Structure formats: structure tokens, C-alpha cells
Amino acid sequence: MTSQSRPSRRESARQKESKKPASRWLLPVVGVVILGVAALAVILSQGASGSGASTGPSSVPAVEPTVTGDPLPAFKDTLGDAAKGLVAPAVKGQDFQGKPVEIAPNGKPTLIAFLAHWCTHCQREVPVIQDWVDAGRVPTDVNFVSVATAIDSTAPNYPPEAWFAREGWTVPVIVDPTSTAGKAYGLSSYPFFTILDGQGKVFVRLAGEIPVIDLEKILASVPKS
Fold first, then answer.
1. Cα separation values, 164 from 72, 73, 120, Å
2. What is the CATH classification number for the domain harbouring 94?
3. What is the number of domains present in the chain?
């Protein structure tokens, strides 16, 4: 992380966001059909897991998230994703304060954002998403959960708890120190998004920095049940 103030980082992220062409990922076929991956992230999760996980500060839960259900296939591309329509694993974990947070079907679509503190793409995406949340633009009938994954005390921008605090992150967080949840969802790069329908089935998976206008359009097309 640089020494930029939070307002400066957010303004920089907003400017980048405003230059992105709207809806370049979508084609209108019975609502929204996802065309492709938003952007390639530089660091693969395989490399991250090889760097070793951190035990983290005392506020990072020592217990790994509990994953129930079959893991999803590794993500390769949004178009023709083998995970589409599969029931996603349920995840029970804790946030940085040890409070329970879970991912489980409850009749509402679920948006999951997997974020790594050392990932520069994630560092640009987080303030953009938080502005989206602050503006009240996240649909009220959508569950939004984030996962702090691939935590590494030797990597930049550690600890993740301090990073989220600097950005005023208000989305519930599951702490995933060694990518237990990330691997179960087939994560292959960062940031990584998975959107589930109301039955907990995969509607779409996306990698890279996703314009929030595209997230809104996708969420509007997700079946509720």
C-alpha cells in the first residue's frame, strides 16, 4: 500500500471506474448472458498458496472456515464455465472479531467477493465496491459476503484487517487464511466473484476488476428461487 489517504485512493479508483466501458461483459439473451472474464489478475492462487499462510494478528481467527458440499471445478473462464448450475459449497466462518459469518442458500441471490490483501487489483476494486455499497446501490434482496483469503504476513498490505478498516469496508467478511473457502469455490485469480441464485447454485463466476454497473445488471437477472 502507498501512503495515499483513503479519499485519494477512492478518487483514483473512481476515476478508473468511470473510464471503464459500461456493460462490455454482457449480451442481452433472456436477461443477461455473461460474455467473458473482466480482466486477468496477475497472481494465481497456486502461487499464493505456495507462499505459505500467515498465522496473522491475534484478531485473525485461528480456525479455518468449515466447508460443506462438493468443491467447484477450478475457474478457467466465465464463458462455458463448468460450475454454472452446480450447488456451491456452504461456508461457515468468522470475521476478524470472531463473529460468525456464513455462505448458505436462503432464497436470495448471493454475491461473494474473494479478496487478497496483497493483490493490487483487489486494492483498486475494494474502494469502488465500498462506494457502491455506501450509495445504497446493492439490491436489498441480495446477500453480499466477502472472503479475505490467501493471507500472508510476508506479502504487501498485511494485515488484511487494517486494510479493510482503512477503506471503511462494511461488507461481512469471512477470514480464510489458507484459502480453504477459495479453493472450494475454484478460485484461480484475484479478485474473484461468485454469484449464486436463491437455491445456492452458481449463476456466474468472474475474475478481475468488474465494473459495478455490470454487477448490477447480472444481479438483476439472477433467479431468486
1. 27, 29, 14
2. 3.40.30.10
3. 1
Helix (H) or strand (E) holding 193: strand 192-196
Give every strand in the sheet of 100-103, ordered side by side: 66-68, 90-94, 100-103
CA distance 25 to 150: 27
pLDDT at residue number 8: 59
d(CA 127, CA 134): 10
Is residue 182 in a domain? Answer: yes
1 is a domain residue: no
Residues with pLDDT less than 50, the chain = 1-3, 17-18, 20-58
Nearest one of 153, 163, 151, 146 to 95, comparing CA atoms: 146
pLDDT at 25: 44
Given a contact cutoff of 8 angstroms between Cβ atoms, the answer to whether 114 and 43 are in contact is no
Q: Where in the sequence is the domain holding 33, given as residue range(s)?
A: 6-220
User: In 3-state terms, the chain is what percent helix, strand and coil (to 5)?
Assistant: 25, 20, 55
Return the HEC string of 104-154: CCCCCCEEEEEECCCCHHHHHHHHHHHHHHHCCCCCCCCEEEEEEECCCCC
Question: Do the domain assignments include residue 89?
Answer: yes
The verdict on residue 225 lying in a domain is no
Q: What is the grid cell recorded at 133?
A: 455499497
pLDDT of residue 12: 58
